[in-house]
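Every protein is a chain of amino acids, and every chain bends into a shape of its own. The protein below has been through that process, and both of its lines are reproduced in full.
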Amino acid sequence: MFRALIPAISNVAGLARNQVKINTLNVLARNFSQFSIKPVNIQFPALNTACNTQILAQKSLIQPCQSTIVRNLTKFSLRKAKRKSVKAVIKRFLRLDWGIWIRTRAGRNKRIWRKSPAQKYRARQHVFCNATQSHMLDKMAGEYYKKPKYFVDDLYRPYHSRESYSKTARKPRDWDL
């Protein structure tokens, strides 16, 4: 049985070699992280038996994934033609009163059992977004979320003011020190 398959397989391999372009393989190999393996039907006209075509027709070829980054920003709503906030930004980030955005660390709740105490401590911390990210998040959030909010027992109250920097300081400096 296997001896009957060997000529068919070599014939299929010759056909496949002729059909695949070397340039496309080089492009696929260069940027392999954007690709996934998906089953694809391949037609082999040189095979005569139906059994061999069923066995050899299912091959896995590398195809590019169709994934793009989407930021669902509505610039003009249908009813009032107003800009809308992106709800994912509101859920994941917090804007401090002096304009910077903070977020929690990625993967902070994953595999806690194997993290060291120092890693667990760092995972509980919040981090600042940089200026470019803050500018983008400002555009994705509405005016309501940019205004200062005054909550009772706000955990972030000490961080809403930035007294160490003269541009954002609200209290006058005490020069008598």
